[in-house]
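Retry 2 of 3 after timeout on previous attempt. Resubmitting structure tokens to design endpoint.
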């Protein structure tokens, strides 16, 4: 296998470094599947030789890219569930990257983009304003009560970041935005799916006759 240099943010050296490609794997749509191609790269840092698993869109070139590390997990960040669509989790990871760089206004904007991506993935027309999209999800029973209130609060903070204002987004608001956005994503893509599976399993058990001793 040829060894191609790539640029990484080494978690051991704590700086951008060159790394050597050790292996790669692309996942591309097949048949009726509809998702963005994903590429995975296994690399080793040329300075300390530590290993990393990186992710990027498979149709993007590598030259000059600072790729997204998915292993080892960033100690300051949370690993997103694989149940969350790639396009949505990508926006969330960029929000985390902005927060890590202390770009708190940019963090709020990326959280807002995450919500927009979530709405689009859930079938909301992309042309609809975000507040209307969130209302549509609420009316469909996909988010409710406090989750809807959280999403609206994140939308407002995102608007503050997206438009020029003398008041910037602070660290605490940006940090809370990340935590609340992750809670909403987990509810829709993780807990809801688990609950539906639980209900189906219970329904199947209810239709089976009880075991009787001979």
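Retry 2 succeeded. Sequence:
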């Amino acid at each position: 296998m040829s060894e191609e240099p790539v640029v990484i943010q080494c978690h051991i050296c704590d700086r951008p470094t060159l790394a050597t490609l050790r292996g790669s794997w692309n996942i591309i749509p097949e048949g009726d599947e509809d998702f963005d191609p994903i590429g995975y790269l296994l690399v080793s840092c040329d300075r300390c030789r530590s290993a990393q698993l990186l992710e990027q869109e498979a149709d993007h070139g590598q030259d000059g890219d600072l790729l997204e590390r998915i292993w080892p997990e960033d100690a300051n960040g949370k690993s997103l569930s694989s149940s969350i669509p790639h396009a949505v989790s990508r926006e969330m990871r960029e929000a985390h990257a902005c927060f890590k760089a202390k770009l708190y206004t940019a963090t709020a904007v990326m959280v807002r983009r995450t919500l927009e991506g979530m709405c689009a993935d859930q079938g909301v027309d992309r042309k609809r304003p975000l507040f209307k999209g969130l209302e549509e999800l609420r009316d469909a029973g996909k988010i409710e009560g406090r989750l809807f209130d959280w999403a609206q609060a994140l939308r407002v903070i995102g608007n503050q970041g997206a438009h020029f204002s003398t008041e910037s987004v602070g660290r605490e608001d940006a940090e809370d935005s990340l935590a609340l956005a992750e809670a909403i994503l987990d509810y829709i893509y993780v807990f809801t799916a688990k609950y539906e599976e639980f209900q189906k399993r219970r329904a199947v058990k209810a239709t089976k006759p009880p075991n009787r001793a001979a």
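Attempt log closed. The chain has a mean pLDDT of 80.
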